[in-house]
Amino acid sequence: MTKKRFNSEMFYTGFPVFITLVKIDTEQILATTYSSSYMLDNWLVIGAGADGNTASHLKVGTKLSVNYLDAENGILADIAGLVSSRTRLSVLTEMGAELTEIDEIPILENGSVSIIGQIEKVVSMDGINHLFIKITDRFIDKRLLTDGKIDWGNMSALEYFGAQTERFYKAVSSDKKKKGQFLKESRKHDTRK
């Protein structure tokens, strides 16, 4: 066997990095960096720590935006994840974050994609809240659109990797291949014919 057992309490194999924005009153906006998520149909599921200030505001009925970052905006991920929540928003804007609102929900103009939704269900397990978010709207950087289609080849995602105590971001940008392309190419080179 070419694989070796690797014991690690935490193990991240590359998840898109995003900043959630939540308006918690008429004046205050909460910004936080996350990376654990998946999306199916019109649902987005986020894994987030169950403790702390942010968790207390992410409950059923909360409307929020999920803003996926590219490598150009990696500094914003660090700020939203590491700077004190009391000064986080002002530091984000000082470092170039551009915020706007759609239907009173704050979104980040920086980055490639913004998803707007509402938390419909929260499942708590082992100190993690799993937030089930019903997607109500999607926005994409118009530079990534060509003739109304997404130009996936120009998307440069920022992803989160790490194990044990090591954590890092990695810019993921490569040539794209359509689903089934690997199989199609392998058949061209199949010598068993």
Sum this structure up briefly.
The chain is of the alpha+beta class and 193 residues long.
Structure description:
The protein has one domain (11-188): Pnp Oxidase, Chain A. Helices cover 15% and strands 45% of the residues. It has helices at residues 53-57, 74-82, 88-94, 181-188, and strands at 11-16, 18-23, 29-34, 37-40, 43-49, 63-68, 99-102, 105-108, 113-125, 128-140, 145-146, 149-150, 157-163, 166-172. It has a seven-stranded antiparallel beta sheet. Strands 1-13-14 form a three-stranded antiparallel beta sheet, with no helix packed on it. The protein has a two-stranded antiparallel sheet with strand order 7-8.
Give me the secondary-structure topology.
Elements: E1 11-16, E2 18-23, E3 29-34, E4 37-40, E5 43-49, H1 53-57, E6 63-68, H2 74-82, H3 88-94, E7 99-102, E8 105-108, E9 113-125, E10 128-140, E11 145-146, E12 149-150, E13 157-163, E14 166-172, H4 181-188
Antiparallel strand pairs: 1-13, 2-3, 2-6, 4-5, 5-10, 6-9, 7-8, 9-10, 11-12, 13-14
Helix pairs in contact: 2-3
